[in-house]
Design goal:
The chain is α/β, with parallel strands linked by helices. The protein contains 10 helices and 16 strands. It has a single domain, classed as Rossmann fold (3-Layer(aba) Sandwich). It is globular and about 60 Å long.
Length: about 325
């Protein structure tokens, strides 16, 4: 069963074009517009290699309609603080949002390993150190995995907190964090099923804000070979006018989903696959905003939050 079910939204074709234009136009009414940031709750988690991972949880209001569980991955040299405007906006839209300070960033600089304490500094970390952020492997059972990097540790925390797999799991990555988010999504889908049911394939949607094709030597290429990224997970690529990697990534994914894409460039009319008759039939979106902002700064814009909320409302159709 595909994790993204086609939304059944009846409308005649003329109305469809108007709906799509309104849906993904340059300006949206922003019900989840960025508000004054309210701090989340801090939790200190531990990765399999001894990193103390400071993670902030932003819980939606009790009366909010649940929309998704979001793992938000900040850009390199950022932290939960630089991602907080988007975290708060998504929280106010009904999402439970977890934002870790990635290793070497913010409050996640301590590692106890081999009987000694180390201080992590992103400026001194090498490719292998960064790849661990998105790693989760070792053994057949995910709950007992030998390698549990930053994002896998956050996922395990969310699962233990809920008592089951996170509901409607979405991964949002910014800049280099988008590269890591894509790699971890592919890893999530790679876990083999058990007799009791699946232990992976939990990510339902992926949002990539100013994605970097290669970040500090860590490349998207391996993840793009994954069936999850090519076909299964709904993907939104969002960038400013200077984000060439966003266009490059969208064009590659578009070749894998020739019947399921929607393309909105800054200052241009939208285009779409000819087979897309209803908004929910697209599983791949490109949104280009008329701004030079990138990474966490672009993610902090109210337009970005509004578009992400609209995308999630479209693709997270319950399989009830």
């Amino acid at each position: 069963m595909r994790p993204v079910r086609r939304a059944d939204i009846p409308s005649p074709r003329p109305a469809l074009l108007g709906a799509l234009a309104c849906l993904l136009a340059a300006r949206l009414a922003a019900p989840c517009a960025v508000q004054a940031a309210a701090e989340g709750k801090r939790f200190d988690l531990e990765t399999s290699d001894g990193v103390t991972l400071a993670t902030w949880l932003y819980e939606p209001p009790e009366d909010a309609t649940p929309l998704a569980t979001v793992m938000l991955v900040h850009d390199f040299e950022g932290s939960h603080r630089t991602a907080e405007p988007l975290a708060v906006a998504l929280r106010d839209a009904g999402c439970l949002v977890a934002v870790p300070d990635l290793r070497g960033h913010g409050a996640s600089t301590d590692r106890a390993q081999a009987g000694r304490d180390d201080k992590l500094d992103i400026r001194q970390m090498r490719k292998a150190d960064l790849e661990v952020i998105a790693a989760g492997a070792g053994g057949r059972l995910r709950e007992q995995s030998a390698v549990r990097g930053d994002l896998e540790t956050v996922h395990a925390f969310l699962a233990s907190r809920a008592g089951s797999a996170p509901d409607r799991l979405v991964v949002v990555g910014c800049g280099a964090g988008a590269t890591l988010a894509t790699l971890w999504t592919a890893a999530d889908w790679a876990w083999p099923p058990l007799a009791s049911g699946p232990q992976g394939q939990q990510v339902r949607a992926l949002v990539l804000v100013s994605p970097s094709w290669a970040a500090k030597g860590v490349s998207l290429q391996a993840a793009l070979a994954s069936e999850a990224i090519k076909h299964e997970v709904a993907v939104m690529v969002l960038g400013g006018t200077s984000d060439r990697d966003a266009i490059r990534l969208f064009e590659q994914l578009k070749r894998q989903r020739p019947k399921e894409w929607f393309d909105q460039r800054a200052g241009a009319e939208f285009t779409k696959a000819k087979d897309v008759e209803k908004p929910g039939e697209a599983t791949l979106f490109l949104m280009q905003l008329d701004t030079p902002l990138t990474g966490d700064k672009l993610a902090a814009e109210a337009d970005t939050a509004a578009r992400i909320k609209t995308f999630l409302s479209l693709v997270l159709t319950a399989d009830d």
